[in-house]
């Protein structure tokens, strides 16, 4: 109150406390949502149950255009600079945070189905939980004005806390009644033709790589249940970033294998992920497929392009950038990829949002050179990516944070789901194989959403 009176402007206030290890952060958020609430759940189950789940809106920071990352970073910094909160303690993400996402394109999703998901869209939540292992912290936040009394603020926070429900996540209906309709928004032949045209341009020397995606819709007999879908994803994709961001009656949900950036103090971490092959239930065949991927010149080049670009983007801001010479094969539920973990020691304080802006879009989802490929992506694809292939995550008051790339995702609104999957096209790409690769990627969510 004193800080607000002194400056005459509202001040962000945060109170953090430890809660029982039994509290399931995402389940609480899903169960406690009101119709007008923004909500956000972000987990990586394999990393000691890392979770950040948030509900409600103290402030919403939005922007559009090429400077959108910078603009929301500045707005968050202004709020965080005068904030009054407990000393940082507990797992990453405990304390005051801003959570949300950035669309793939600078101007974001313009199609009606992306309504509510702004080009840059962070929310400072009223309630947030952070978990690592057995350590679960609850943070309650409010904007305190010069005329607020301590009693008013305490009553507001207590009322929000009292409204939280501890109900578990709902189960997905295993045998829904009714008919599901699955449609490829554009005919698959269009996709193959777009890949073929892109290959021609690459061979003519216009650019090196472009990522082209498809959109598939699932119309269900009853409304899609984002909470149940999230529950299935987090138990089936434990190594992935499993997230769900809610805006009004829509939810954007995913199980993404791709970290865009994690920033902890002067350390930044990312991964160059590209090149894909299917999994097999037979372990010997599965390993053989992984070996083939490691030896495929086409996939190695596709992935090396991403490594080079990430290193180039980080170097001007780093004391050192470290990446192993050879990629490794990572196996996710239905697919395997080539991956190179990349770490950097930052030379000056670059926040998590600025790091995301330096890296996004990597050639894992955009193209190389980006300036050449960027205008061709919507032209070839004929779809509105919205938040697909954008950056989703959180940042704290120290500008630490974590953003993943929104892949293996779906936008759910009532009975409709829109799924997105893309592949990297290079000079040796074969249109039929690339179409098949989109099917493998769609296979992460399709069986869950299509009954
Ligand atoms: C573009 C997607 O995935 C990206 C493209 C990959 C590829 O082309 O092999 C692999 C992993 C991701 O970086 C997607 O899942 O939609």
From TrEMBL:
EC number(s) per entry: 5.4.4.2
Sample GO molecular function, one term: isochorismate synthase activity
SUPFAM superfamilies: ADC synthase (SSF56322)
Chorismate-utilising enzyme C-terminal domain residues: 189-441
InterPro entries: ADC_synthase (IPR005801), Chorismate_C (IPR015890), IsoChor_synthase (IPR004561)
Keyword Signal appears in the UniProt entry: no
Descriptive protein name: isochorismate synthase
